Amino acid sequence: MSGPSPFGVPRSRGSYLNHPSIHPTKLSTQSGVTIAEFLIAVAIAGVILAQVCLLWLYSSRSFAAQMNYTDLDQRSQRALDTLTQDIRQCKSVTNFTTTRVTFIDYDNKLLTFFFDSGKLIRTKAGVPSKTLLKDCISGEFSMYQRTPIAGSADIYPTSDPKLCKLVQVRWTCGRKLSPTSPTTSESMQSGRIVMRVK
């Protein structure tokens, strides 16, 4: 139907059909995340984060334990070097137990090494005491005479300080990284030291 509209505006066929109010609008569809999907994603992320934290903790403790072991070994080596240097210059042994040994030093002064309360201590007349080693779990001295065992490279042990020519010292050190962590211990350190002056 054509002709002027009641308001004086020409109207053409289908003008009402083309009016936007005649056609229904299309609802836009939007994708979203459900609560279940969100919870699953959070759970997966939590598991991954926990694994990363455990790996970091294990690596940190392993590194700290290795550094602790290295430090113990270096301290033991320095203590053994001091013992070797001092005992080689000694003239004789005057007193001996498995945890304490006393020598007459090259200058005729008494020189003593002993284990006490987890420490290896050096004392000498007229010289302040010196702690050579800490964190000792065990430690002991042994004496040997100069006579070799027949058919062997070893020598006979002795309990008489007058017959002592060689002193053996052994110890094991250990340390805890924290009160709840296991003790990190080094392998036993051992050395046989000959008194060259005697």
Could you walk me through the main structural features you see in this protein, from its secondary elements to its overall organization?
By secondary structure, this protein is an alpha+beta fold. Helices cover about 25% and strands about 35% of the residues. The strands form 3 sheets. The protein has a 5-stranded antiparallel β-sheet with strand order 3-4-5-6-7, covered by helices on one side. Strands 8, 9, 10, 11 and 12 form a 5-stranded antiparallel β-sheet that branches. It has a two-stranded antiparallel ribbon with strand order 1-2. A hairpin with a 6-residue loop joins strand 10 and strand 11 (about 185). The mean pLDDT is about 85.
Write the topology of this structure.
Layout lengths: L2 E2 L5 E2 L23 H54 L3 E5 L3 E5 L5 E7 L2 E6 L2 E7 L2 E13 L6 E3 L8 E11 L6 E3 L3 E6 L4
Antiparallel strand pairs: 1-2, 3-4, 4-5, 5-6, 6-7, 8-9, 8-10, 10-11, 10-12
Short description:
By secondary structure, the chain is of the alpha+beta class. It contains 1 helix and 12 strands, in the order E-E-H-E-E-E-E-E-E-E-E-E-E.
Order of helices and strands: EEHEEEEEEEEEE
* Global structural class: alpha+beta
Q: Please give the count of helices.
A: 1
Strand segment tally: 12
Q: Strand order of the main beta sheet, please?
A: 3-4-5-6-7
The overall pLDDT, averaged over residues, is 84
End-to-end gap: 138 Å
Our Rg estimate from Cα atoms comes to: 43 Å
Strand content: 35-45%
The major beta sheet can be summarized as: 5 strands, antiparallel
Oligomer: single chain
Shape: elongated
Query: Low-confidence runs (pLDDT<50, min 5 residues)?
Result: none
**Relative helix content:** 25-40%
